[in-house]
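I have been asked to look over a protein record a colleague put together. Alongside the sequence sits a line of tokens, each denoting a local backbone shape. Please read both lines and tell me whether the tokens look consistent with the sequence. Take the sequence as given and treat only the tokens as open to question. I have pasted the whole thing underneath without changing anything:
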Amino acid sequence: MPKFILNIKLLNLQLIWSTLTYILILLLGLSATPIKAECVGCICPGNPCGLCALPPMKEETVSITHESNTCSRVRSIVAPTLAIPGTNEHFASMDKSIIECVKNGGDIIKNSRRSREFPSKHYCKPSVILLKSK
């Protein structure tokens, strides 16, 4: 077989291979659908973990009708406050509420990204056992 025919066949194979590769890349790129980021964790819309703000605030954003046992115990021992964050009254109330949350089986969650639904810096997460016993 002459050399130029072999070169043409080789060029045709390379062209076919590169075309198929581009088509495959294009199809894979089009078939990839964007995935919506879902909120994971406790600081999500709807308050899935039953969090309550620490210290308890007089203007609570979380519905008190759905308050957990742990949060209601903290609220009964530590009076809700209107203290400005950073004041001595606020820190005293914060310390008492953290102690009561942990004493009643809760965990402390620090909120690094604030929102309308979760404006506080610290939250009490009731234990799962206490949430299920309601």
Summary: The radius of gyration is 30 Å. The first strand starts at residue 52 and ends at 54. Confidence is low (pLDDT under 50) at residues 130-134. The chain has four helices and three strands.
